[in-house]
Amino acid sequence: MSKFWSPLVNDLVPYVPGEQPKVANLVKLNTNENPYGPSPKVLEAIRGELDESLRLYPDPEGESLRQTIADYYQVTPEQVFLGNGSDEVLAHIFYGLFQHGEPVLFPDITYSFYPVYCGLYKIEGQPVPVTDSFEIDPEDYKQPNGGIILPNPNAPTGRYLGLGHIEDILKSNPDRVVVIDEAYVDFGGDTAIALVDRYPNLLVSQTLSKARSLAGLRVGFAVGHPDLIEALNRVKNSFNSYPLDRLALAGAQAAFEDEEWFQKCCHGVIAERERLTAALEGLSFEVLPSKANFVFARHTTKSGADIAAGLREQGIIVRHFNKPRIQEFLRITIGTPEQNDALISGLQTL
Ligand code: PMP
Fold first, then answer.
1. Whether residue 280 has pLDDT greater than 90
2. Ligand 1, residues 87, 116, 117: which to mutate, most atoms within 8 A of Cβ?
3. Where is the Aminotransferase class I/classII large domain (predicted)?
4. 348 CA to middle of ligand 1, Å?
5. Atom 7 in ligand 1: which residue has the minimum CA distance?
6. 1 pLDDT exceeds 90?
7. I need a surface site. Which of 47, 51, 64, 176 has the fewest CB within 10 A?
């Protein structure tokens, strides 16, 4: 604390991102990045932007990328909002679409940025316990609220909620915005974007950081009714009119234009997720069913913290959360077959 700090900063409890190690030769399975690189066409598109046009500001509306995303999901560009990573999209959602004075509902085991945004904007967050099997029960979201946000699949559990249950939640909250954070949906889930034309209170956020291997480019987007998108644009233009730079706009667009690469990466991750799940079960882990690019698993006898520390000594990083109910769990990102083999061998030595 310093005398120069605003009182607002004194109160902040910031998000702590997973470790991004400085050394390269680690098996990094801690922050749910895609083990396969971005499409070569993405790299080519970014290289194509490296010229004197960088002196000019990018398109503040990202029109061409919004059109591409709209075509991909069969919506209109007026239903698409772009942000610098979905974290920024979510920040604008918390500011612009949740009602103050009423609690915003989210699962108690979920993405830890949600309570951080509540703190930043002085919104009351109300964690709703997940069930004994770590599932989201739609019945629990039928209570007065200022908005709802659910990741689907949930993080860090990987558990997935079918679209029928999401419709239940949308129908029981017609006057509140329901946000489905689909950071991990491409690894086996169905997107709720299919529902946006039927539910004006639905907003779906997605990222290019996971299935499209572009965590380093920082591109996220949201799809919903044009009225919701207009609110997000007002917030954006009160904060940073140019959230996506020229390289990000071009790279993101190329990513949507290479469906073959996208499908190949998703199928590779899904196949390895199934193989790793079986291997972990063989090593006495209980593994929650996952539709994400990670698994959430606990050993039947050994402590989660000890296993994470033991793996770290071998140069393998997984995520361990020191939080109630999940201290014994490890969240393990699905790596390449070689990385997953290294993890399995590492576990065998502990
Ligand atoms: N939502 C969830 C559930 C996540 O796990 C993440 C990644 N940590 C994000 C959103 C944000 O992703 P990004 O800002 O890279 O788009």
1. yes
2. 87
3. 25-345
4. 31
5. 183
6. no
7. 51
Model confidence at 23, pLDDT cuts 50, 70, 90, reads confident
* 19-28 contacts at long range (C-beta below 8 A, 24 or more positions apart): 19/317, 21/317, 25/315, 26/315, 26/316, 26/317, 27/315, 27/316, 27/317, 27/335, 27/339, 27/342, 27/343, 27/346, 28/317, 28/333, 28/335
Q: Ligand 1 centroid to 301 CA: how many Å?
A: 31
DSSP secondary structure string for all residues of 274-298: HHHHHHHHHTTEEE----SSEEEEE
Ligand 1, residues at Cβ distance < 6 Å: 85-87, 111, 151, 155, 181, 183, 207, 209, 215, 220
Asked if residue 249 lies in contact with residue 62, where contact means CB atoms within 8 angstroms, the answer is yes
Q: Whole-model pTM above 0.95?
A: yes
Residue from 158, 200, 166 nearest 286 by CA = 158
Give the distance, in angstroms, between the CA of residue 199 and the centroid of all CA atoms in the same chain: 22
In angstroms, the CA 337 to CA 331 distance is 17
Ligand 1, atom 8: closest residue by C-alpha: 31
Spatial distance between the Cα atoms of 69 and 334, rounded to a whole number of angstroms = 26
* Mean local confidence (pLDDT), 219-247: 98
| 165-181 pLDDT tens trace | 999 999 999 999 999 99
d(CA 251, CA 183): 18
Which atom number of ligand 1 is nearest to the Cα of residue 87? Answer: 14
90-111 pLDDT per residue, tens: 999 999 999 989 999 999 999 9
CA of 87 to the centre of ligand 1 (A): 6
| Helices 304-313, 337-348: crossing angle, 10 deg rounding | 110
- Give the Cα separation of 138 and 143 in Å (integer): 11
Please compute the mean of the pLDDT values over residues 271-278 and round it to a whole number: 98
Q: Which domains does the chain have, with CATH numbers?
A: 15-37+260-348 (3.90.1150.10), 53-257 (3.40.640.10)
